Amino acid sequence: MERRCAVYRDKLKGEPFASIVPSRSPELKYHGSIGRAKSAVAYTERIYDQEQRRTYDGARGGEIYRRTADGWELAYRVEKGTLVSELPWKVAKQ
User: Up-side HSE of residue 41: CA atoms within 13 Å toward CB?
Assistant: First the structure.
């Protein structure tokens, strides 16, 4: 995911939050709140696991950035197919 998102990092602007989702168009979007950025990355889609031969709902994946005084900082990285219960902001609360 890190490599796929790298090409969009130079386009980050002045909004407080941004999400990069390679499977979405446009790939880079700006958000006024962290909640909207989380929703963009955690949006679930049907994923077929060939190894286990089953379909499940998983996050489409991407990166969330937070604007700081020094520029942009990576807040979260979510791999494609991550289960909703395993999202980094949910795991941190447990």
Answer: 27
Strands (E), the chain: 17-20, 28-31, 44-49, 54-59, 62-68, 71-78
- 34 Cα distance to chain centroid: 11
Per-residue pLDDT, 73: 94
Rounded distance, CA 69 to CA 88, Å? 24
Q: How far is CA 66 from CA 10, 13, 17, 33, 58, in A?
A: 14, 11, 5, 10, 23
Percent pLDDT > 90 in the chain is 43
Q: Please tell me the pTM assigned to this model.
A: 0.76
- Which tokens go with 24? 């979405």
